[in-house]
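Researcher: Dear colleague, please comment on this protein.
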Amino acid sequence: MLPDDKKKSNLFSADTLDRRNQHKRFELLQSMPIFGGISIDTLTFLLEHSKLVAVSKDDYFYHEKDPAQSLFVLVHGEVKLLKAWHGEDYVLKTLKPGNCFGEVALMDLQPRNTSSLATEDSRAIEMTDDTFHQLFKREIEQFTIIRMNMAREVCRRLREADSRAFAADIKARRLKRPN
């Protein structure tokens, strides 16, 4: 059950999406690495089976350790991905429109590994695991391309994290050295 300030609406209902916004959402998805090489028919299917989620400033799309059932594509606003450590939240990354979040948990079938805080009123397209399962049954090749693209994106992030961890380790070692 969603809180009152987290509203969902079908992306193709008359009250939420006119043709201009529909075209913008297609362009947004086509510009994202996760949806690279995906046909217009598949993007249409995904959008028809997705919801637009509106989250107010200072509320969350999801919390760390929540069960994962969807990924989000930020359409409007700003979201910070947070990681809890010893009772405090730390910002891992700030997301802008066009960024995708929540996909890691769909791939590894684990609970959410971050929280996603809206730092301003935000809207995101929510694509559920069920929708991807329907796509698997309907267009296995397109499903496979999306999953490969997700894996590539996660690998890019892992490389970035490795580089940051290495730099932090080297910095810590230098600080420990006697002068």
